[in-house]
Amino acid sequence: MIVVPTYNEASTIGDLLDGIGACRDQAPDEVIDVLVVDDNSPDQTQDIVRSHPGFGGWVHLLPRASKDGLGAAYRAGFAAAVRAGYDVVVQMDADGSHPATAVLPLLVLVRTNDVAIGSRYVPGGRTENWPGRRRALSWAANTYARTVLRLRTHDATSGFRAWRAEAIAAAGVPETTSNGYGFQVENTWRCERRGLRLAEHPITFVERTAGDSKMSPGVAREAALLVLRWRFRELTRRRTTRPAAPAVVHDGTARA
C-alpha cells in the first residue's frame, strides 16, 4: 500500500496516480494499491481521487476532518494499511517530487531490508530544478539532523520510503509525536537506535511545478527543536549504543 497524504493537491494528485498506475502495469504480479489520506482539502482533491479510473479498485481514499499535520496523516494511513493486512507500506509525497518510477526499486530493496529509503544524498541521487538557496537549506537541515543525532543514514529527511509492516511497529511509528517534516527524522532516528536494517536507493527529487509547498519557517523550527530534544533525551538516559557503519553497495545503495 502506497500512503499519500494530501492537502490542496488537486493540481498534482491525478498525475501521481497515473504514474503509480504505470508502475502497476510494469509489475503485474505485484499487488500495489494507493491510499490517499486527505485532510479535508478545499480544492477538490478528494473529488479528483474519486473520479480516477482506479478508484474503488486499487485507489482508496481516507478522508479526515481537518488539516492535522503530515505526521498525523501518515500515522493514520500506516495504521489503516497494517489493519488491512498489507506486508509493505510505502510513504510518498503527492506533489510529484518523488518519482513513481522509483517505487519498484524500493519494493525490491525492502525484501532484504526493514526500510528502503529514496535518497538524494547517496551516489546517483540528486535534486532537480531547485534554486541554490533551497538546495543549501535542505543540505544544511539534513546535515544538522545527522550530526546532532549521530545518524548513519545519508538522507535522514527523505519522505519517500518503503517499510515492512513489522518494521512500522518495531520502530514505534504509531508512538511518534512529530507532525511536520520532523516526522521523517524521528523515524530515521528510531529505526537506527532500534537496530532496523535501512537501505538507500538513489532518486532524483524534482521540485514541484504546481501547487504550494507545505514547508514553512514554523515547520523548520519545530523539526530543529525536536532534534535537540531527542538528543537531550538520549544523553540524559545515558544511552550508549551506536548504529553500525553503513555498507555502500555498488549500485549506489547505502545500507545503515
UniProtKB/TrEMBL annotation:
A single MF term (Gene Ontology): glycosyltransferase activity
Superkingdom per UniProt: Bacteria
One Pfam family in the UniProt entry: Glycos_transf_2
Keyword check for Nucleus: no
Leader peptide range in chain numbering: none
Coiled coil: none
Keyword terms of this UniProt record: Glycosyltransferase, Transferase
Keyword Amino-acid biosynthesis included in the entry's annotation: no
InterPro entries reported in the protein's UniProt record: DPM1-like, Glyco_trans_2-like, Nucleotide-diphossugar_trans
Domain Glycosyltransferase 2-like: 2-168
Similarity comment text for this entry: Belongs to the glycosyltransferase 2 family.
Protein name in UniProt: Dolichol-phosphate mannosyltransferase
Organism for this UniProt entry: Nocardioides flavus
Record lineage: Bacteria, Bacillati, Actinomycetota, Actinomycetes, Propionibacteriales
